[in-house]
Write a structure and sequence with these properties.
31% of the residues lie in helices and 26% in strands. It has helices at residues 2-11, 25-36, 58-74, 106-109, 136-146; strands spanning 21-24, 43-48, 53-56, 81-89, 92-99, 150-155, 161-168. A five-stranded mixed β-sheet has the order 2-4-5-7-6. The chain starts with a helix and ends in an 8-residue tail after the last strand. 35% of the residues are buried.
């Protein structure tokens, strides 16, 4: 898995990393929810469904959302709540994953997207859950950057976290 993730990071710098096509935003979030429900015993839901289509790589965006969901699972207890959502506003597409888990220390939030960073152990994951290698959030950041966007986090210890992909709203041309 480490080799695959490092290879993906290396490929993210190549021009053919993305395969752009029409992506229905509602379908993207619904697909992510469908995949998410198979990961763990959590309460999954949607807070808001984005409408419209964008020119993007739907598989990469789904990969990014699923990485965020996977992280949320690692930091919430069995039966915890994880929600997905999205909105189109002000020429931007914002897609998010929110959990009611342990939260992230403020000093760790800026470093979360750095390679091999797994955050502090002070408010670590749910007991017995492997944190992984600290590459997943960097992959999410690279996918966002390849789409000329960003990823960010807002979290308060004890109140979970919200990760947001913020992308330009690129409408597909009518003939694509």
């Amino acid at each position: 898995r480490l080799v695959d993730d490092l290879t993906l990071l290396a490929r993210s710098e190549r021009p053919d990393f993305l395969h752009l096509d029409r992506v229905g935003l509602t379908d993207l979030v619904m697909d992510a929810l469908t995949h998410a429900t198979t990961l763990a015993d959590r309460r999954f839901g949607i807070t808001e469904l984005p409408e419209g289509e964008i020119l993007a790589d739907g598989q990469r965006l789904l990969q990014a959302l699923m990485q965020l969901v996977s992280n949320a699972v690692k930091h919430t207890s069995e039966g915890g709540e994880i929600t997905l959502g999205g909105v189109v506003a002000d020429g931007r597409v914002r897609l998010w994953v929110t959990d009611d888990g342990v939260g992230i220390l403020e000093q760790d939030q800026e470093r979360l997207f750095d390679r091999f960073n797994r955050g502090s152990e002070v408010h670590g994951p749910v007991q017995g859950v492997d944190l992984g290698l600290g590459i997943g959030l960097e992959i999410v950041a690279r996918i966002a950057e390849a789409h000329r966007g960003t990823v960010g986090v807002h979290s308060v210890i004890g109140n979970g976290a919200t990760f947001v992909l913020d992308l330009p709203y690129l409408r597909p041309q009518e003939n694509t």
